[in-house]
Here is the input.
Amino acid sequence: MKRLLYLEPYTFAFIGEKEAVIYNTLNSAYIHANLNHPVVRNIIDTLNNPDNGYGIILDDKELEDPEVKSFIYAVRESFSGDLVPFKEGSTKPFIFKPAPYMNNLVEDEDDPDNSKTAGELALQNLCEVTLFLPVNNVQSDDSFYHLQMNHPYNCHNENQLQIEDYATVLHQLFIAGVNRVNVVGTDQLLAFNHLFGNSDTKLYYYTSLSSSIPEQFQIDKPLEIFIHPEEITVETAENIKIHHRDGIVWNFILTSITDVERVDKLNLPEHIDYKYTPYYDGSNMPFFEQHVFNGLDDIIAKPVSRKAIFRRQLLNENFFGKHWIDAAGHVYGNMNCAPVGNIRNGSLKDMATKLLVEKQFPWLLTREIEPCKHCVNRYLCPSVSNYELVMNRYNLCHVK
Ligand code: SF4
Here is the structure.
């Protein structure tokens, strides 16, 4: 008797150069398929063709093959699909192979007449903007932190925006419906909050401990304060205890495992909200290899949802929908890339159009790049990160 092998719509078949994987998005089951075996190869190729309704009819001979048996057993045991009797002459059920909905990045379902321009639709995707305030007191060795995190940054430009200029920028962001504005600065944060703290846009502030003044700790908005490795001291811990309030997150920048141990030794009380952010300083790759790189177990530790897989097939989930604007008004799709314009003489719509419609780097940066593009996990792995852009290396993993 013939049988129908099918996959559930929440299951994906990923094909790499040398192997294929069946991945169940509900329970994170991850099943290897041996592409060197001709019948398994045919099963995978057939399932991968959307015209085949995510199923294949197999005869007794094929089903008796031990490699096929073990593959189908794994699929059924993990609830990723099933094998059912198939009556000769009957119609094969059709299951849609999961695929991302391609029309929704620059098309609006609520705009059936297409009355909006591509630029207006691109702008609808802008959801987060980071504003760097003019900074005069960032130490020179701080100057690369902003490439990896929202750290204060001196852009060394004589023609810097003045605090008052940010009113125009904030107004543009408000009109564009941007949900979140990150404001990164040092001594100018208080002045900014004084002038714009009551705006309708959600504001999140970032500064660094070395450039903070105690009055800044009282800003009535979420505030993240970076603490550099050389500042992990008993005095800093005392300062944190004195100045902590709800809404402050103390962010320890780490370059080595020793830094982690030093933070642990500070024994900060439980009510203090703090976190760690690894920093690549050009010489600490072993630290990243040991503590930041992903193994396969990390990648599938939690089920990767259908939506996440679709997103990762189309765009970069770390950068998409975000702008960074430096104190000279330059607008970036990411601080590691060239600017896409200047807010003084270009509109947010123009910048979003460049990044989305004209596909300028990096909103649509997926793992379809070397060496990840040959890897079976390219849609399971998180999108390319700042670390990878800084290192110019796109596979921070232990997966061979
Ligand atoms: S980082 Fe790239 S090479 Fe490594 S597992 Fe992910 S997709 Fe594969």
In short: Residues 18 and 314 are 23 Å apart (CA to CA). The pocket of iron/sulfur cluster is lined by residues 367, 371-372, 375, 377-378, 381, 395, 397, 399 (CB under 6 Å). The chain has a mean pLDDT of 92. Residues 3-85 form one domain.
